[in-house]
Structures are given as C-alpha cells and as structure tokens.
Request: fold
Amino acid sequence: MFTGIVECTGRIAAVEDRATTRLFRVEAPSFGGELAQGDSVAVDGACLTAVRAGERWFEVDVIGTTLDRTIAGSYEPGTVVNLERALRMGERLDGHLVQGHVDGVGHLIETIKEGEFWLMDFRLPPDIVAQTILHGSICLNGVSLTVSDLHDPDVCRIGIIPFTWENTNLGRLQPGDPVNVEGDLIGKYVGRMLPALDRGAVDVAPRRVGSLDKDT
Reply:
C-alpha cells in the first residue's frame, strides 16, 4: 500500500530484455541502499518488487502484462520516474490510499500556467471515468492528486503546485504523453457493488445481532 506522496524521482539506468520479462535498473540515490530484496516500490505508481538493490540503485523484473497495461513498456535509459516505498503501518497518510495497481493509461491534453501553479487536463480511460468524481482523489504517475474539474466525461483537470511540479515528473510531461492512472479505491468497490445491488445479488437489509437474532 502507498500514499501517492512521491519520495523522490529516479532515473532508468538500464533496460535488459529477458526471455519472458524485462529488467529495469533504477537509479534511486535517496533510498537505494535502504531497500532489501523483495521490497515493494511504486515506480510511476505501479507496484514493483525490488529483485536486487545497491547503494544508489535497485532492479525490478517486469512481466508482459505490466508492460502492456502501464507506461513501463516505453521506459528507456534516461527516463525519469516517480518513486515511493511502501507505506509502513503507523505512519501518517498524507495523500490517499493507493494500491499501486494501475487501472489504465491516460494522456495529457494540455498544461495551462495560472500564476504560481499549473492546470493539467488528462483524458482518462473509460473504465476509470466512472470512478472519478469532482474533488475526489486520483493517482497519476504515482502522485496523489485532487480532481479540480471534470470538463468532458473523460477529461480530468488537476492543479499542480510548484513543489509537485519541481519534485515529480509531471512537470516534464508534454501534450500527448501517457501517464499511469489509478482510480479512487473507494470508487472501485462502489462501482463493483452497484450492479450487484441493482440485480438484488447483494443483501443489504439490516440484521439483528446477538441473542436478538435468534428465534424465540
């Protein structure tokens, strides 16, 4: 589990195609030496497993499904990525609950400079649109963000403050660039349950508990 609060940006140092996977070496000067084999790291919001780690780097082995469903398939040496280690129990949750399970790929439409901040419009995949509400949460490239406007049914606008612009890879995006998108966790479950409720497949009637629930 993650928070969508990016710890630092890293850089893809090397890419190696293997028989059934693709190995990425990621430069992570801030915490590479603190990772252990098997630790989870969100790379642009996708939860990946560190298979090896050194003082300033770690490596992840990525399967075809992840390469197809996320922007990892386009990574090449020099690509800047957002990084976040898994959340420890008991720490503050500064962003929102992020699973690191990318739901789809969106695309930047345009960036508008507004005084000291930026507005960015993203076109979302159809299955994420239903989970997205005004002023709700969304995760783009691993960054916890608030939906500030919904223009068209599939266009989400977010506001970016200078700190986020300078300390994540969102400020590097150009129109047309893809981003990993994870919809709101609560919205996913509500969206899954509503069709079942409409069919009457889920019993939501209140029930008595304890001795009062027994026949007398």
Q: What stands out?
A: The first strand starts at residue 8 and ends at 17. The CA atoms of residues 112 and 119 lie 5 Å apart. The chain has four helices and twelve strands. Residues 185-199 form the longest helix (15 residues).
